[in-house]
Each structure stands twice: as C-alpha cells, then as structure tokens.
Design a protein that fits this description.
The complex is a heterodimer of chains A (about 250) and B (about 90). Chain A has an 8-stranded mixed β-sheet, sandwiched between helices. Helix content of chain A is about 35%, strand content about 20%. Chain A is globular. Chain A is of the alpha/beta class. Chain A contains 10 helices and 8 strands. Chain B has about 90 residues and is α+β, with helices and mostly antiparallel strands. In chain B, the strands form 2 sheets. Chain B has a 5-stranded mixed β-sheet, with no helix packed on it. In chain B, strand 3 and strand 4 form a beta hairpin. The longest helix of chain B is centred in the N-terminal third of the chain and has 11 residues. The relative contact order of chain B is 0.28. The chains are: A alpha/beta (about 250), B alpha+beta (about 90). At the A-B interface, helix 4, strand 5, strand 6, strand 7 and strand 8 of A face loops of B.
Chain lengths: ~250, ~90
C-alpha cells in the first residue's frame, strides 16, 4: 500500500496509465542492483530513487577523483578521495529517504557476480569495462534477472534491455571482448542521456510492463544528434544463453 | 548490381546499389554502403581505404576477399554478388 505522502510524492507519475498505483507499489517493493556509480550510475541512481524504487544496492570499487567531476554529478570537490558508494548513498538518501540504499565497495567479477544478485530483481549497468559486464550478464541469464545494458564513449552511447528467456543476451551481441583505451573520452551529458534511457527501460520492466524496446538496441550519436534503433538477434551458438533460450 | 548486406546480429536487409556506366570497385561499393547505412558512425567498414575492424567477412561471388588478386581494387561487374558481414563494437565506458 502507498502512504498518503507517497501518493502525493509520486502523483505525477501515478497519472501515467502504464504505472498507476499498482505499478508504483511494484516499484516500492523492487530491489535493483546498480553496478557502478560513475557517469551512468550517478544519473540513473538519482532517477531510480526519485521514482520510488524501494531498494538500491550500489556496487563500485572506486574513489572519487577530480577527473570524474565533469560527469559524475553526485560528487563534488570535497568528495575527492572518498568511496563513491558512500557519497552516493548519502546524496540519494537526501533525495528520497524512503529508499533503502545499500552501498558495497567492491569490484564485480565472475567470482562474486552471482552472489551480488541475491534478492535482486533487476540490474542496471553503470560499469566502465566489458569484463564486469559479461560477468553480470552471465549471472543475470543464469538467474533470469533483467539486465539493462548501457555504455558510452565520447559523444556516443548504447542501451539495450536484456530480458533472459525473451531477448538475446550481451554475449550474443558481442561474442568477443575488446578492451578500449583508458581513459575513455566522454562529455558529461552523454552518460546522463543514456542513463535516463536505461531508467525508462528499468521502470517499465519493474512495473510489470515488458519493455517494448526489449530485443532492440538504441544507439545515440551526439555528434550527428541521431538515434538509431536496431533489431538484435540471438546467437544460437551463444555460450551464455544459447541453451537457455534454445 | 546486387548486394547482400548483413550486419551480423543486428539486421539483414537485402540492399541493391547502382553505379554509373564506369562501374565501381569493391572499395567504392564499401564506401557507398558506409555512406548509406544509417548507423554509419558506429561502423568501421573502411579505415584509411582498407578493410576496417568492423568487417567480419567479405565475399565477392562466394570468393573470400583475401583471395582476390586486386583486393579492394577489384572492379565489380553488373550482377556481382557481394556478401559483407560487419559488426558494431560495443561502447564500454560508463
């Protein structure tokens, strides 16, 4: 049940027929893992909290650096050197104190990915490397948990809602891992755009609506100011989801 | 001229490309594909005039491009069938 305060707080999104009270209650009871609280995670976490997602577990291995501040909008100059998850948890609690925030200072690996998903309903990708993404993708496929992929580079970004059993997985799309040079170029508003598209996908899934864009990938090119939507296909030989979907 | 244009794992539209009387080389065909494919900025079909890393396979009438004497400078004939498999690299920053 929503409290009278919640009915007021979320009144504008309750007016959206696809959300309504039932959807809002689902959000309130939802538990999301936010993998990475960098450029993507700083934006997505704020809108997940504002939307009333009941529980957000944040995992990140980094501390705040001066070079993060062009895009990681939860942090300020006084936070340099602090653990990102701790600062983010404090800021998000100020945004919406009814949301339970669980900060975890850790690196996501193949060894711990599955454990991190205990009790989790959906995973938001805010990672900065493909190895950790693939580890989470495999764990999500294994447990049947939706994974909202997001990635950025320079003025470009990509989003795809991966729903195990219904859509191809990340390993279908990218059977090989290529490591790109670090540090990667990025304009702060690009991860904000991609993160907010991820949040829309997440909220549709959490409120019980199968995301219409699932099975598709959205590409954003800020240089040309273009969006593209591509069909994505399952790889029948995929080592992660081939049998599961077969 | 008929081309079979496949973007691996994404979509598979059959695409026809037409050139003037002078014809075209394989390289010019790839340049044209690159300029007409919508998400071109996400693809690397050609890099400095040679095959880009985004290309998985390139066949001309069933023959692998690597075995063509003139490579990308091979002139195309009317009715040639070109099969191209390309992929879009993930962006992995966050």
């Amino acid at each position: 049940m929503l409290t009278s305060e919640e009915l007021t707080r979320y009144s504008r999104q309750l007016l959206i027929p696809e959300i309504g009270q039932e959807g809002q209650e689902r959000l309130k009871n939802a538990s999301v893992l936010l993998a990475g609280v960098g450029g993507l995670g700083c934006s997505s976490s704020q809108f997940l909290a504002c939307a009333g997602v009941g529980s957000i577990t944040m995992v990140d291995r980094d501390t705040v650096a001066l070079s993060d501040l062009n895009r990681q909008v939860l942090y300020g100059q006084n936070d340099i050197g602090k653990k990102k998850v701790d600062v983010a948890a404090e800021r998000l609690s100020r945004l919406n104190s009814s949301v339970k925030i669980y900060p975890r200072f850790a690196e996501i690996t193949e060894e711990n990915a599955s454990k991190l998903l205990a009790g989790i309903e959906l995973v938001m990708d805010g990672l900065d490397n493909l190895q950790a993404r693939f580890a989470l993708n495999s764990a999500c496929v294994e447990k049947g948990i939706p994974f909202i992929y997001g990635g950025i580079m320079g003025l470009k970004g990509m989003v795809a809602a991966i729903v195990p059993g219904k859509t191809p997985c990340l390993a279908c799309l990218y059977p090989r891992i290529r490591t790109h040079e670090r540090p990667f170029p990025v304009l702060g508003s690009v991860p904000a755009i991609i993160a907010n598209l991820q949040v829309i996908e997440a909220i549709k899934i959490l409120t019980g609506r199968y995301a219409p864009s699932a099975g598709r990938m959205i590409l954003f090119d800020g240089g040309e100011m273009n969006f593209f939507r591509l069909e994505i296909r399952k790889d029948e030989t995929c080592k992660v989801c081939g049998k599961e979907m077969g | 001229m008929e081309s079979n244009f496949i973007i691996k794992n994404y979509f598979e539209p059959p695409v026809e490309f037409h050139f003037g009387e002078g014809g075209a080389t394989l390289r010019q065909l790839l340049e044209k594909i690159g300029s007409q494919c919508a998400p071109v900025s996400f693809l690397e079909i050609l890099k400095e005039g040679e095959l880009g890393e985004g290309v998985d396979t390139l066949f001309l009438n069933g023959r692998n491009y690597f075995s063509l004497e003139k490579g990308l400078s091979t002139p195309l004939q009317d009715g040639d069938r070109v099969t191209l498999e390309i992929h879009i690299e993930p962006v992995d920053g966050g």
